[in-house]
């Protein structure tokens, strides 16, 4: 039930802090260690490489997962679009472990890949919001997102739940391997900080509506840019905006713009920059200057410690590998208000279904 909300999407955006708390309850012990099936962790530990397979927003959550699995658990990770993998699989490691990310657990493209993985007899995990869904039944193991039903076609809380579950899983794998970095990754503390930061961002609705009105009301195209984990978020942010506002939006690696795409920047083109990484903040800021010089209207989403006076959206400080959980929220809200201001059906955008059960 959407209750007092005009749209499910806004309700689901608002639920994200509570989902973080629910995940802490389900997966974290009082002492901060992680409670996950040992047999599954052993299977991952014994594998050489993780292959994440997913579509759409779930694929984007997988991109952030790669950062977590490689940096916290030290497992080399590849992320694949399900429809591409199915008929053109890459050369696999000798001992692969597959992770299927899917809110619905019913996406046909991912099911097709899992069918093959089962024929090859490789171990797999489905991370899904729907218990007993097809992908969950057909994989060797399941982890649930505990996000509650997601009704709006544009996925919001499932994305952040997927990233949080990946963080929990990365810690558990690293913990089992005895890695110091994983043991010190204090998810009880970090996810509490995230939930509080998310709350601050979802309370920024009025400002996001104003920004959407000023920058996105009439434009035909827009860009999100970022580097590293901010680039992963940029792609998801772009999908969110395009699928419900019909503004042609692309996410780009900021440094790559000047290799071609910058030709598209005109007077008034909206460019939204995500800056949460200390190492690359100055580089992205100089890319921002390059697009401003060509007439772009820039919105900056910046982590507190890196923020400057003119930045319009400042996100509270969280762990550097968990920033997507917070930086995506203003992007979700900008998409929501852009769609609403333009008079579209926010929850049911044209041409799209909530779960895509054909290949
Ligand atoms: O149910 P799934 O997570 O497998 O769905 C995958 C995509 O179809 C889905 O994320 C889609 O991209 C959303 N509409 C994005 O908001």
TrEMBL record:
GO molecular function: carbohydrate derivative binding; glutamine-fructose-6-phosphate transaminase (isomerizing) activity
Coiled coil: none
The protein's Enzyme Commission number: 2.6.1.16
Localization terms from the record: Cytoplasm
Keyword Repeat: yes
Keywords: Aminotransferase, Cytoplasm, Glutamine amidotransferase, Repeat, Transferase
Residues of the active site: 354
Main EC class the enzyme belongs to: transferase
Gene Ontology CC: one annotated term: cytosol
One GO BP annotation of this record: carbohydrate metabolic process
Segments forming domain SIS: 40-179, 211-349
Top-level division of the source organism's lineage: Bacteria
Catalytic activity: D-fructose 6-phosphate + L-glutamine = D-glucosamine 6-phosphate + L-glutamate
Described purpose of this protein according to its UniProt entry: Catalyzes the first step in hexosamine metabolism, converting fructose-6P into glucosamine-6P using glutamine as a nitrogen source.
Complexes and interactors: Homodimer.
The protein's name: Glutamine--fructose-6-phosphate aminotransferase [isomerizing]
Source organism per UniProt: Ligilactobacillus ceti DSM 22408
């Amino acid at each position: 039930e959407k209750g007092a909300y005009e749209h499910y999407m806004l309700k689901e955006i608002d639920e994200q802090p509570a989902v973080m708390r629910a995940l802490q309850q389900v997966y974290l012990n009082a002492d901060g260690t992680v409670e996950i099936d040992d047999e599954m962790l052993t299977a991952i530990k014994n594998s050489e490489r993780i292959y994440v397979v997913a579509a759409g927003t779930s694929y984007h959550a997988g991109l952030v997962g790669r950062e977590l699995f490689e940096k916290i658990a030290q497992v080399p990770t590849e992320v694949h679009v399900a429809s591409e993998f199915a008929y053109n699989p890459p050369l696999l490691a000798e001992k692969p472990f597959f992770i299927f990310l899917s809110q619905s657990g019913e996406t046909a493209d991912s099911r097709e890949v899992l069918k093959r993985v089962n024929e090859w007899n490789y171990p797999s995990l489905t991370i899904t919001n729907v218990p007993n869904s097809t992908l969950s039944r057909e994989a060797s193991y399941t982890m649930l997102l505990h996000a509650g039903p997601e009704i709006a076609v544009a996925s919001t809380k499932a994305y952040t739940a997927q990233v949080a579950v990946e963080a929990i899983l990365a810690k558990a794998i690293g913990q089992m391997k005895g890695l110091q970095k994983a043991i010190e990754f204090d998810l009880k503390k970090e996810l509490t900080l995230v939930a509080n930061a998310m709350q601050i961002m979802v309370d920024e609705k009025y400002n996001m509506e104003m920004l959407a009105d000023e920058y996105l009301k009439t434009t035909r195209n827009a860009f999100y840019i970022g580097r590293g984990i901010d680039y992963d978020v940029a792609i998801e942010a772009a999908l969110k905006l395009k699928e419900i506002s019909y503004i042609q939006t692309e996410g780009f690696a900021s440094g790559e713009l000047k290799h071609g795409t910058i030709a598209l920047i005109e007077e008034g083109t909206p460019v939204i920059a995500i800056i949460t990484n200390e190492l690359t903040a100055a580089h992205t800021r100089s890319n921002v200057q390059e697009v401003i010089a060509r007439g772009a209207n820039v919105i900056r989403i910046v982590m507190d410690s890196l923020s400057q006076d003119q930045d319009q959206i400042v996100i509270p400080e969280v762990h550097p590998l968990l920033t997507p959980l917070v930086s995506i929220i203003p992007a979700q809200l900008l998409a929501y208000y852009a769609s609403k201001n333009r008079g579209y059906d926010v929850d049911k955008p044209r041409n799209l279904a909530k779960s895509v059960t054909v290949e």
